[in-house]
Design a protein that fits this description.
Layout (H helix, E strand, L loop, with lengths): L6 E5 L3 H12 L8 E6 L5 H14 L7 E6 L5 H17 L1 E6 L2 E3 L3 H11 L6 E5 L12 E5 L6 E4 H4 L6 H10 L3 H4 L7 H9 L7 H10 L3 E5 L4 E3 L13 H4 L16 E5 L1 H13 L4 H8 L4
Parallel strand pairs: 1-2, 1-4, 2-3, 6-9, 7-11
Antiparallel strand pairs: 4-8, 5-10, 6-8, 7-9
């Protein structure tokens, strides 16, 4: 097994969320051997300056990892540029990467799952990334399974996969339409991903993640998902600094896995029809709230 992959954490102004993310990471036994790289974006305006400064002051006191490197942006990059530039820089240097944002809490077995997966699957060129979050479901699924595309809530990848990333949403949109794959891209019509991609192309959204999904999808690459979540969004329980989540958002809430994933029980030969169907069922359950959820969860990822 190679040395643990570096973990890259993207932060902005949410001190409470950032503390929880770091605390959860430190509960992983691999943390002491892991390099933590933090990209701290600069405040967008004067109102955010004090919160960003508080996050940075906290980060400079973080210990418990092999090393901690903090990249403090001098100007505001915004979420899209901060993440895409940071991932490109880090994966170019290390060849592989584990990515978290400041509202991701992780299981004590998250780093074990990611590092073992990165090593086991390093030669699987059909796999774009390994994902930590999985939608709530009631299906009987393997320990880990494949679904086409790429995802963004606690993930890991290799340089050869990230090299496929195309930020040109218009080009991606036109190609999906040309190949007549709209329904497949939208999970059998259960979620409006193509419309989100079009919004990105027209400047109505600010999402790097929809382009990551589309880039991998068009190359027929897959994401590895765990049957039980190793990542959850801690912002779903944040009713202090931000607006309390509504009932629709809380449908994304999950309980973190309290046991390690068994890679020997994974099923990674081909895309999982049952896994894909589980996602479709979850998406259909959101249909009545879809417009609100699209705005909340994707336009700024």
């Amino acid at each position: 097994m190679e040395a643990p992959s570096p973990v890259v954490l993207f932060t902005y102004s949410r001190l409470r969320n950032t503390r929880e993310t770091v605390s959860c990471l430190l509960a992983n036994r691999e943390a002491a051997a892991t390099d933590l790289i933090v990209y701290s974006d600069a405040p967008r305006n004067g109102k955010a300056a004090a919160d960003v400064a508080a996050v940075r002051a906290y980060l400079h006191g973080v210990t418990g990892f092999k090393s901690v490197r903090i990249v403090e942006r001098e100007t505001n990059y915004g979420l899209v540029r901060n993440i895409t530039a940071g991932v490109t820089e880090t994966v170019g240097r290390y060849g592989r990467i584990i990515v978290l944002e400041d509202d991701h809490s992780v299981s004590p077995f998250f780093l074990q799952y990611m590092n073992e997966g990165l090593e086991r699957l390093k030669d699987r060129t059909d796999i774009a990334c390994i994902h930590g979050y999985v939608y709530p479901h009631k299906e009987q699924l393997p320990e880990a399974f494949l679904v086409k595309g790429a995802d963004c809530w606690g993930w890991a990848t290799w340089k050869r996969a990230w090299d496929l990333f195309d930020s040109d949403a218009g080009r991606l949109y036109r190609e999906i339409v040309r190949q007549r794959r709209k329904r497949e891209f939208d999970f059998n019509g259960s979620y409006p991903y193509l419309r989100m991609l079009k919004d990105q192309a027209e400047g109505k959204a600010g999402s790097w993640a929809i382009c990551w999904y589309a880039s991998a999808f068009l190359q027929d690459k897959f994401t590895v998902y765990p049957d039980k979540p190793l990542v959850r969004l801690n912002s779903l329980s944040d009713a202090g600094e931000h607006t309390a989540p509504d009932a629709g958002q809380l449908r994304f809430a999950v309980t973190l896995a309290d046991t390690p994933l068994d890679w020997e029980a994974a099923s990674l030969e081909a895309e999982s029809p049952r896994g894909r169907k589980a996602f479709e069922r979850f998406f259909w359950s959101l249909k009545s709230r879809r417009e609100r959820l699209v705005r909340c969860f994707w336009k700024n990822l």
